[in-house]
Amino acid sequence: MEPVKLVEGYKFDDHTTSDVRVCFKLIDEQPEWFSCHSSVLSQNSKYFADWFGQNDIRSNNCIEIECPRVEYDHYVKMLKSMYLPRESVIDSFDSVKSAVGVLRASNSLGCELVTKSCIEYIEAASWDEKEEEEILEVARTLGSKAVSLLARLQAPSADAVKNVFISAIRFATCMETPFPPFLDDLKTSAQEQIDFMIHEDDDTALVTMDEDVKYVVQEGLRKLLSTLRTGLDLLCTEFDQSPDQAEQRILCSLADIDWIANLLAKIEMMHDFVSGWSEISDHVLSVVQDKKYSSDLWAVKSKLIEVTGKALDAVGYGSVVLPSSFRVHFLKTWLPYIQMTKRLLDENSKDETSLQMDSDSCQNIESAIVSMVLALPSDDQADILSEWMKKAEQFRYPDLTEAFEVWCYRSKTAKRRLVDNGASNPTVSL
Fold first, then answer.
1. Domain edges within the chain
2. Cα-trace Rg, the chain
3. Residue 257 predicted with pLDDT over 60
4. Most-buried pick from 3, 100, 128, 271 (CB within 10 A)?
């Protein structure tokens, strides 16, 4: 932009009125001298004011300042800025990078007005990650002047974090209805950021799980399970109209439930998920196992095993403690479905285009089932293992051989081991 006159009426690099010359010295390069005015420089810079206090410009009117090559343009722009009104200094910047460079220069030469203008511009602008690092570096040299500059980087209050987290949970679990389809990407982003907020790495988790937060998470879980139930109730009608669209709707619902199951595992609330999933299990299976879908919904059927695996893992490895009657019922509800669906998926997998379950996920689910069986009372174990062996030729998955071997050993040694340990209570049948 064109130089703007100050009250003194001076313009930058006007040799006809200047009384001093300034150059920013570069190693092995011819210096470039700028015609300046001592009144302007001393008024705007402590460095120049001190220099004029120690030197007589009548005998020495040349000021040399050492300057890193990469900062040269910023120093020149800072010098020009001393000749501009404050509002024009702010308008002269065209990027954060430029403003940060001028800020470094002005701060080193004690140019208060230019420094303040740089800070105001940077504070109001958006930054990328690289610029943010540069701003943090220069802010360390600014002292109290950096307060407004760093306001956006200060750790938010616990209440502010809590409010954002609760809002994100409500959005990620579609509590606000109706939920337009075009917001799906935003919902996914909310889920990702919730995971980030609770993740503990080198930094502590951003949000604290107090009762208010837990209540909203529980409310979100109930909403997602209710959405799945509603989707299943509408499946028959929607499937007749558009099978692919109907299946995709159920898949999206299951993906949301899978996400919240992972979230609940991280915040030690899997008991809520297992209980909620158990409550709708009978309804879910009654729909997807209908003869109408015997040759369809393979993606949904596979995803159901994956989601159920989260519950089996939590119960099987003891992170969720439930009565044995509950565990027996849950296992007997899902085991036949898992056996049948896995076999059909394997048969279909001969076609390379068919859906296949992830091998690691299958192994994890199988291990969880084995662990769950071994934690049941011996008679319940016997009941489950007996049914498994009757169908072993028909269903190879899950393989309960390990559970069978442990049960045989325990059964054979039970009486001796209990007697040896003094467990000879006559009311207990050995």
1. 20-153, 155-281, 323-430
2. 36
3. yes
4. 100
